[in-house]
Amino acid sequence: PGPGRGERQRGGGAAMYAGLQELGVANGEDLKETLTNCTEPLKAIEQFQTENGVLLPSLQSALPFLDLHGTPRLEFHQSVFDELREKLLERVSAIALEGKVEERYKKLEDLLEKSFSLVKMPSIQPVVMCVMKHLPKVPEKKLKLVMADKDLYKACAVEVKRQIWQDNQALFGDEVSPLLKQYILEKENILFSNDISVLHNFFTPSPKTRRQGEVVQKLTQMIGKNVKLYDMVLQFLRTLFLRTRNVHYCTLRAELLMSLHDLDISEICTVDPCHKFTWCLDACIREKFVDNKRARELQGFLDGVKKGQEQVLGDLSMILCDPFAINTLALSTIRHIQDLVGQDTLPRESPDLLLLLRMLSLGQGAWDMIDSQVFKEPKMEADLITKFLPMLMSFVVDDHMFTVDQKLPSEEKGPILYPTTIPEAFTKFLQENRIACEIGLYYFLHITKQRNKNAFLRLLPALVETFSDLAFSDIFLHLLTGNLTLLGDEFALEEFCTSLFDGFFLPVCSRKENVHRHVLRLLLHLHHKVAPTKLESLQKALEPTKQSGEAVKELYNQLTEKLELRKPSPAEVTETPPMELPLPTVPTPASL
């Protein structure tokens, strides 16, 4: 059984007066003892009031005036107390800013020594917490007492918590862990959002907008200017990235550094060797393109890694592994390839393109580098530059030739048919080379965005088997489903749907739940464009199994509801019975 009412009240009373006895100030318990042992209670109360009231002579004559107005003494003393506490809080904040540094902190330390015994007294606690907040170094003994008491720890300011955290990595980890989980969940929610659009996707928000997110802001506040805490967070992110291979931790690593940069926290930015590189890359991500000037800067940082400092490559690779960085580098690579076609230049003759490939390679090799602790740039395969990229350029040329031929007058048109096959070597590159696969997938997204159905159907079979199943990663499928909305009208065609669904999506739905979810997202958006018979077979094929997760079941139910609403009512379906009497023929004007 829990404590009785009397015990709870005594417990509450004890907290209310906690620490007063140590300072020699009478409290409720003293009054209770006095009244228990006296013969004249009224006189004892009067004496207690005189000894412990506000010691101001002019006040004594005014108090009866309040009695006449029916204002309880408690209300009066409470208002005086509140006013004095506010003044004291203001004074503490003022002391923290005035005079010489040593003097001001000495005053605050003395004040803390005198008041700390009252830290559990709710009415005085804000003052004690305010004093600790303004002390750059709270005495160790006091920090331990705060840490040991859950309520005190919860009540203290983040400035005090930082001092506790920096020597208690496990406690700091407990505080940070829920935020990191929330961050990953937020990213996944965006990737699986039911709002499919080519204009607004995962990569649409600018870096500065992303940094205003709740998790980044909270972590920034928790770290403050404390380099030790910043290093701890980076260590958490590296460990989680190694454990899960989740690239969103790389995004958070870059966002956190740039959030501290926005606040001009030089104490941290000057000691993070990745700061200037991340700052320059951040500007490229904002523009979604690496221009020549910034390319030179980024190359300077990479070339400037000195012997003995190779470990910085681990952090740089993590910054480059951020999906927003990969997206920018891949988009820039596709743009460069198209420019090279127009300039009649080979990939190996373009220093800018080679730098983009170097950074892509470093970013894609982040996990291996941090895992192996071998800090050197991955070796670029010559075939990527001399064989794969020229092959990709030949696809661009095929498109140009076909487009030009279609625009020619019919008598000048040649017998050009759009090529339907792809070199076996191209498919092999997508399967065996990570950088080739990334560039190939971004080229595929590019042709989809251009509504190039011929190129889409030609390249799609090559995506069935890719390096590490990259074609079935959430980021790629999120972008692909968005771009497919531009080919909406093609969904009415049997050939297109068979290639996309039967040839690409459906064979992997049973083994990859994320693909199942993305297909359902797509159909929720484009079901009205699909031929009814095809839609019916897709609905059957996509039906969740017992093993399917809740997200798949929920999406499938949403799709089923939408399809039910589209079905015509029985009244509409019923055909009009044929009339028994033939209608007389009405002569047309021409036959009159």
Automatic annotation (TrEMBL):
The residues forming the signal peptide are none
User: Cellular component per GO?
Assistant: NELF complex
Q: Pfam families given for it?
A: COBRA1
Ranges annotated as biased composition (Pro residues): 579-592
GO biological process, any: negative regulation of transcription elongation by RNA polymerase II
Q: Where is this region: Disordered?
A: 566-592
The protein's matches in PANTHER family, at most eight in alphabetical order, are given as: NEGATIVE ELONGATION FACTOR B, NEGATIVE ELONGATION FACTOR COMPLEX MEMBER B
| Name under which the protein is recorded | NELFB factor
The organism of origin for this protein:
Crypturellus undulatus
